[in-house]
Design brief:
single chain; 502 residues; alpha+beta; six-stranded antiparallel β-sheet; 14 helices; globular
Length: 502
């Protein structure tokens, strides 16, 4: 999300007088600039990645788009919302109905999260397949919800159909995929935090007002006419628009012009933000690790897992700093976990186990909590393959991690990228998995006790999906005969989407 004071826009692609000065910003951030200058809404596909320098004065938005097209970035035709892609795509068919809302996603957003938000806005339940649904960036101010949702679905390769009181979303080409309510499972996302923050800083207000003048980095300047606005990054990777008079934690933005911005702090110091000189036009910049991770994530979301893995393995060979290696290994483990989920969904369980073992080799050294999830998924796969004896040890190891206490705290910033509640999720899932394995082995009393323990965990955190799973297993026992029906095994019961977070 972004914050800004009001800025006058022309709304014309072929009119106005635009100036853009950008240094090392992403392509989607340049599109964000265009949106702010013209009032045109854009949805940017997840595979539009890369960084550029821009030095353009007194141009139209159409000229800016033409310069970007030379770098392989394409725009659909006129409409309330326009799509930006790495290849020419069909123009959007937009109904122009629904509430008018403003949504701004500068960082690539998870399609599943945005559809949840849309469901809240329009008051209609949305159901969708498990697994990743894609990523995109969206810049829309006061545009119809139906238009924004149509653009989001097109960008993510999805299709939707209204059925009664629900909207059914499916991946194109997968009409028979099982769909579930988007809010199923009560999953919660991990919130990244600022590492090493002091107590006073932790109490700062949200938004740009919570940052010191010396903490922000200027990456862009833009104008539509005479007034200029500055685009800045903050240490946690957020992007903001600031203008003259905008408040910072320790002062105020005194001026913004074609050369940069000046901030005056409360203790009388002057902080100057300037952009380095650059050649006229739009030029691409060699990929850094951030861009490589984005490319890998885009390939993963397109289910081109082997290409994504190759890209990450190549990056792993060339990393120079410890943090680069850590981030690349984390992305590789996340990719393999998601790959295993896709294999399991197709019934290729033995292949899924091999991929999970590769993810576990990384996670057990770097991220014990994710290692526990890998182990639980391995155990479920072995039980589903009819080899419950091989499932017991992985589930027990996961249970030990869940109860170790060492991993119960907040996640490390930007390294933990799975969506779940930490301790109860892994513990409950391990107990469910053990119960299923013992049940298939014919150890019914042990299985019953494990289901009861799992139910207690899920109930303590009010997780409806977990409670349902444990109750299904526990309730299927025939108390009079001491027997039970053969369980239905669910691989990846909770839908994981593990995006690479910058």
């Amino acid at each position: 999300m972004w914050l800004s004071a009001g800025f006058v826009r022309s709304g014309e692609l072929d009119g106005g007088s635009l100036s853009l000065r950008v240094r090392g910003a992403s392509l989607r951030e340049v599109v964000w600039m265009l949106s702010r200058l013209t009032d045109q809404a854009y949805v940017v596909d997840g595979d539009v990645v890369g960084k550029v320098d821009v030095e353009l004065r007194e141009v139209t938005a159409a000229e800016v788009e033409a310069r970007l097209a030379a770098l392989g970035v394409f725009f659909t035709g006129p409409g309330t919302v326009r799509r930006v892609s790495t290849a020419p795509v069909p123009d959007l068919e937009l109904p122009g109905t629904g509430h008018r809302v403003s949504l701004q996603w500068v960082r690539p957003g998870d399609t599943r999260d945005v559809l949840r938000l849309m469901s809240d806005i329009i008051g209609i339940e949305i159901v969708a397949p498990a697994g990743p649904l894609g990523r995109f960036s969206l810049f829309a101010e006061e545009k119809a919800t139906a238009d924004q949702m149509s653009a989001i679905l097109a960008s993510s390769g999805l299709e939707a159909r209204r059925q009664g009181t629900r909207i059914h979303v499916r991946r194109q080409g997968e009409p028979k995929a099982v769909v579930l309510p988007l809010n199923a499972g009560g999953l919660t996302g991990h919130a990244a935090y600022r590492s090493g923050e002091s107590a006073p800083a932790a109490q700062r207000p949200p938004g740009m007002e919570g940052y010191l003048a010396t903490e922000a980095r200027l990456w862009g300047l833009a104008s539509n006419g005479d007034a200029w606005m500055a685009f800045v990054h903050t240490p946690d990777g957020s992007a903001f628009i600031v203008e003259a008079g905008y408040r910072l934690y320790d002062g105020v933005i005194e001026s913004v012009d074609a050369g940069g911005a000046i901030a005056r702090t409360e203790d009388g110091r002057t902080v100057v933000w300037r952009l380095q000189p650059a050649a006229e036009g739009v030029s691409g910049i060699a990929d850094d690790l951030d861009v490589i991770l984005e490319r890998a994530a885009a390939l993963r979301d397109e289910r081109r897992f082997d290409e994504s893995e190759h890209l990450l393995l190549s990056a792993l060979q060339g990393w120079r700093r410890t943090d680069e290696g850590t981030r690349t290994r984390a992305a590789l483990a996340d990719l393999r976990f998601e790959w295993s989920q896709a294999l399991s969904a197709r019934g290729e369980l033995e292949c899924a186990v091999r991929v999970l073992e590769a993810a576990y080799e990384i996670d057990r050294a770097d991220r014990p909590w994710q290692a526990a999830e890998d182990l639980n998924e391995m155990g479920k796969a072995w039980t589903a393959l009819g080899e419950p004896e091989r499932a017991v040890n992985p589930h027990r190891e996961a249970l030990e991690i869940a109860r170790s206490g060492a991993e119960r705290g907040a996640p490390r910033p930007f390294l933990c990228v799975r969506t779940h509640e930490r301790t109860p999720w892994v513990e409950g899932d391990a107990l469910d998995g053990l119960a299923n394995a013992e049940r298939v082995r014919g150890r019914l009393s042990e299985a019953l006790a494990l289901y009861e323990r799992a139910l207690s965990v899920w109930s303590s955190v009010n997780d409806p999906t977990g409670r349902s799973t444990a109750l299904t297993g526990w309730g299927s026992f025939d108390r009079t005969s001491g027997s039970s029906k053969r369980p239905r095994h669910s691989i990846g019961r909770h839908s994981h989407w593990r995006p690479v977070i910058r």
